[in-house]
Design a protein that fits this description.
Helix 1 (14-25) packs across helix 8, helix 5 (99-119) packs parallel to helix 6 and helix 7 packs across helix 11. The protein has helices at residues 14-25, 46-49, 68-78, 92-97, 99-119, 156-175, 197-209, 230-242, 259-269, 325-330, 339-359; strands at 5-9, 29-34, 58-62, 82-85, 127-133, 179-184, 187-188, 216-218, 224-225, 228-229, 248-251, 257-258, 273-277, 284-289, 303-307. The chain has 360 residues and is an alpha/beta fold. The strands form 4 sheets. A 7-stranded parallel β-sheet has the order 3-2-1-4-5-6-11, sandwiched between helices. It starts with a strand and ends with a helix. The chain contains 11 helices and 15 strands.
């Protein structure tokens, strides 16, 4: 039996780890690329790497998107059927602090992978998936953003991803490489990085429950986002490369919620009632009702959410919601996990993480 081979850059991240699990279940041989660092940073894939039944199907390579020689060497040795590029500096806020690094990794890194496919003579063999982003749309041009909506990036992250999007299309059209973009709207999970707003909320609330923190500090809680689950989205990424021809697809739930809605429903899931006071940067949320036997560390009147202007971005993207009609029609895809299931999963996971940390 011939197994398909895939390379996943950013395999230690949220999307990379879920995709690795998904492909392994489909009997792929998976090669992950991770950066060499002083810390292992493999917690999301340790369960795969330590599984004795997968030792001959899952391999890790050290590499960096800016090291074209190493990328070419890995691709030449593996000769993959598919490459999924998830490696990136993916935090919008951080990109304002590190614009040069963000631009290099996200833009030139993608170019290096595409060039390696060409240099290795794998144009007819290797399919390439580029993880694009809804942040490309930035300043809203349409009520719902589709593949035909004009781009208007509003951060160094988004502009770097715009180059990656277009260089992927360029190599597709210039060298006939099967190269596709998946324009992913926000997707979360318990594996989301702790600096992203949804995870910041769920882990912050968990720490409040266990008396380790008093408040969660946030920026613009009125930002509107289209939130899905990373598990659903990586399956879509795979479907993009199984389509009969290379193309670009919006991946979205087509439903929109505010950060404030996410906060309120996290507390609601736990049976804690909060009330909002104030306006603008002076807005905050207090606990007004809870089960004191279940949550002995909480106190009535605790201010559990505060606004801090340092978390506002220099150029805010306030309103994103996708139009995934094309993906639904051509790829027969639709998300399975809704926002309430996502919140439950994230809260439960972070409560367990924090609980274990208190036992150490």
């Amino acid at each position: 039996m011939k197994f398909k081979k895939a390379i996943i850059t950013g395999v230690t991240g949220q999307d990379g780890s879920y995709l690795a699990e998904f492909l392994l279940k489909k009997n792929y041989i998976v090669h992950g690329i991770k950066r060499k660092s002083s810390s292992f940073n493999t917690s999301r894939i340790d369960h795969i790497y330590e599984n004795k039944h997968l030792r001959n199907k899952f391999f890790l390579h050290y590499g960096d998107l800016l090291d074209s020689n190493t990328l070419t060497k890995i691709i030449k040795e593996v000769k993959p059927d598919e490459i999924y590029n998830f490696a990136a500096q993916s935090h919008v806020g951080v990109s304002f602090d590190l614009p040069n690094y963000t631009s290099q990794v996200n833009s030139i890194g993608t170019l290096n992978l595409l060039q390696a496919i060409k240099d290795c003579g794998l144009e007819k063999k290797t399919k390439f998936y580029q993880a694009s982003t809804s942040e490309l749309f930035g300043e809203i041009q349409e009520k719902k953003q589709s593949e035909k909506t004009k781009f208007y990036p509003k951060s160094p992250y988004a502009t770097s991803k715009l180059f990656a999007y277009w260089i992927t299309k360029n190599f597709r059209e210039s060298y006939n490489i099967f190269a596709s973009n998946g324009i992913l709207f926000n997707h979360e999970s318990p594996r989301r990085g702790e600096t992203f707003v949804t995870r910041k909320i769920t882990i912050g609330l968990s720490k409040i429950i266990y008396g380790l923190e008093k408040s969660i500090y946030l920026g613009n809680i009125y930002s509107l986002r289209d939130w899905g689950h990373a598990k659903d989205y990586v399956q879509m990424c795979w479907k993009v490369l199984q389509y009969k021809k290379p193309d670009d697809f919006v991946i979205a739930t087509e439903k929109q919620y505010s950060v404030k809605f996410f906060i309120e429903n996290c507390f609601k899931y736990l049976g804690i009632k909060i009330k909002w006071f104030g306006k603008g940067i002076n807005e905050f949320a207090k606990i007004i009702k809870f089960d004191d036997k279940k949550y002995p560390k909480l106190k009535k009147g605790m201010i559990v959410v505060k606004i801090n202007k340092k978390y506002f971005r220099p150029n805010e993207v306030d309103n994103l919601v996708g139009n995934a009609t094309k993906a639904k029609k051509l790829l027969k895809w639709k998300p399975k996990i809704n926002i309430y299931q996502l919140i439950k999963e994230m809260i439960d996971a972070d409560l367990e993480i924090v609980r274990k940390s208190t036992l150490i």
